[in-house]
Design goal:
single chain, alpha+beta, 3-stranded antiparallel sheet, 34% strand, globular
C-alpha cells in the first residue's frame, strides 16, 4: 500500500470536469487514471475533479489559472 500524487493543470482539470471524467484506480496498479467510467469491474473512483479543486483550496473549476498545477494524493491499495 502507498500513495500516488496526481498533478494536473487547471485547464486540463476543466476539460476533465466538462467531459464527466473522474480519477479511477485499479487495485494493484501503481497509478490512477482519468476516465468517464471504470475500465475494469474492480476499479474504484478515488477522486472527482471537485475533490482535486478542494484539495487545492478552490471551489469552482474556473478558479485556478489554466497553467496552474493542481495536486491530489490518492492511496494506492494492494489487491487482497
Amino acid at each position: 500500500m502507498g500513495t500516488a500524487t496526481v498533478r494536473i493543470t487547471g485547464e486540463r482539470l476543466r476539460a476533465m470536469a466538462d467531459n464527466g471524467m473522474n480519477l479511477y484506480l485499479t487495485p494493484g496498479a501503481s497509478a490512477p487514471y482519468w476516465a468517464s467510467s471504470r475500465q475494469f469491474a474492480y476499479d474504484e473512483c478515488v477522486a472527482t475533479p471537485w475533490d482535486v479543486l478542494r484539495a487545492n483550496g478552490y471551489e469552482d473549476v474556473d478558479d485556478p489559472d489554466g497553467d496552474e498545477i493542481l495536486e491530489i494524493e490518492v492511496e494506492v491499495i494492494d489487491p487482497l
